[in-house]
Amino acid sequence: DKGAYPFYMLKEIDEQPAVMRKLVQEYFGDHDDPQIDENLIKAMADADHIYIVGAGTSYHAALVGARIFERLCGIPTTVHISSEFAYEQPLLSKKPFFIFLSQSGETADSRQVLVNVNAHKWPSLTITNVDKSTLSREATFTELLYAGPEIAVASTKAYTAQIAVEAILAKALGEYLGKDAAKKFDVKHQLGLVANGMQSITDSKKEIEEVAARYLSKPRNAFYIGRGLDWSVSLEAALKLKEISYVQAEGFASGELKHGTIALIEKGTPVLGIITQDRTAGLTRSNLDETRARGANTITIVSRHLSQEDDTIILPDVDECLTPLLSVVPAQLLAYYTSLGKGLDVDKPRNLAKSVTVQ
Ligand code: M6R
């Protein structure tokens, strides 16, 4: 039931702080460290490479998770689009471990990969929102997202829950492997900060609605740009805008823009820069300047400690690994208000189904 909300998507965006708190409760209880099945951690620790597989938004959450696993656990981690991996499997390492990300647990493309993985008896984990779903039943291990039912076709709270669960798992695995980076990463405390941060962003809907009306309501195309984790979020941010507001949007590695795609920038093209990573903040700002010099309207989504006076949307500070949990929220809201402003059916965009059960 969407209660007083006009669309499920807005309700689900607003539920994200509560989902973060629920995850802390489910995975930590009264403990300081995550309580995860020891057999799962041992199976992952035994692997020489982690492969994360997903489609759409789940693929985007995998891109963020891979960076967190590498930073905290020191295990090479690569990400694959399930529909590609199923039929064009790359050469694999000797001891692979597979993680399947799927909100529904029913995506046919991802299931096909799991069928191949099981045929080789490789160990796997499904992280899903739906208990006893196909992918959850057929994998070796399963963990839940605890996000509650996600009704809107555009995935929001499942994306942030997926990243949070990946971070919790990476913390547990990294600690088990004795990695300093994992020991220092207080994920329980950080997820509390994330929940509060999400709340403060969803409390400033008015400002975000104005940004959408001013910059995104008319143009037919737009760019989200960023580097590293900010690039990964750019892909998800662009998908949200495409999917529900039909703006042709592209998520782009900001440094790559000048190698060709900058030719598409013209007067009034919206270019949204996501800036949350210390090492690359200045570089992305320069790339934004390059687009502005060619007529773009630049909009910035920036972590507070990196912010400057004329930035558009400021995000509360959290650990650098977890900034995607905050930077995606204004992007979800921008897509929502752009769609709403155009009078579209936000929850049921054309040509799309919530769960894609064909290959
Ligand atoms: O249920 P899944 O997470 O496996 O679904 C994967 C994609 O179909 C899904 O994320 C899709 O991209 C969403 N509509 C994006 O908002």
TrEMBL record:
One GO MF term attached to the UniProt entry: glutamine-fructose-6-phosphate transaminase (isomerizing) activity
Recorded catalytic activity of this chain's protein: D-fructose 6-phosphate + L-glutamine = D-glucosamine 6-phosphate + L-glutamate
Chain ranges of the SIS domain: 40-179, 211-349
Keywords: Aminotransferase, Cytoplasm, Glutamine amidotransferase, Repeat, Transferase
Catalytic site: 354
UniProt-annotated location(s): Cytoplasm
Cleavable signal peptide: none
Enzyme Commission number: 2.6.1.16
Superkingdom, taxonomy of origin: Bacteria
Keyword Magnesium in annotation: no
UniProt keyword Cytoplasm present: yes
Coiled coil: none
Quaternary context: Homodimer.
Function: Catalyzes the first step in hexosamine metabolism, converting fructose-6P into glucosamine-6P using glutamine as a nitrogen source.
Name this polypeptide is given: Glutamine--fructose-6-phosphate aminotransferase [isomerizing]
Organism: Limosilactobacillus pontis
